[in-house]
Amino acid sequence: MKTEFYILLSLKTPRGFVDYGQYFFGDDRGTAYELFSQLKGNQNLKDSCLLHIDLMETVGELPVKVKTICCTLHELAYNCKLIAKEIFRLKNLEEME
Questions:
Q1: Over the stretch 23-64, which tens digit does the pLDDT of each residue have?
Q2: Strands 51-59 and 16-26
Q3: CA 48, CA 6: separation in Å to the nearest integer?
């Protein structure tokens, strides 16, 4: 059974949360957890926040939410830059191996 990790971006609407972006990390649990721990945001305000970032894990074919943080628009911009930079680094390291 293959396990994969990704970060899911969602925002709150009058009808509930809507997903609008994903960043895939493959099967490297350590990298996914380490990167998620570096993201700016708050884990305690999940119900009142408009922007969510979720660390997701697929077990078999089923998605499982591991952790969630909420963030401001400025924190989201920082987080997206950090995520893109890390994915760029990881993908380029893979090609070098």
A1: 998 888 999 999 999 999 998 876 678 999 999 999 888 999
A2: unpaired
A3: 24
**Gyration radius from the chain CA atoms:** 14
Judge whether 85 and 31 are in contact, CB under 8 Å. Answer: no
DSSP 42: B
Closest C-alpha to 23, from 2, 49, 50, 54: 54
Pair 25, 90: CB distance under 8 Å: yes
Report the sign of the C-alpha dihedral through residues 64, 22, 91, 36, in that order: negative
Dihedral sign computed on CA atoms, order 2, 25, 32, 43: negative
Taking the CA of residue 83 as centre, how many other CA atoms within 13 Å lie in the half-sphere pointing to its CB? 24
> Per DSSP, which regions of the chain are E strands?
3-13, 16-26, 51-59, 62-71
95 pLDDT above the threshold of 70: no
User: Where does the pLDDT of residue 97 fall: very low under 50, low under 70, confident under 90, or very high at 90 and above?
Assistant: low
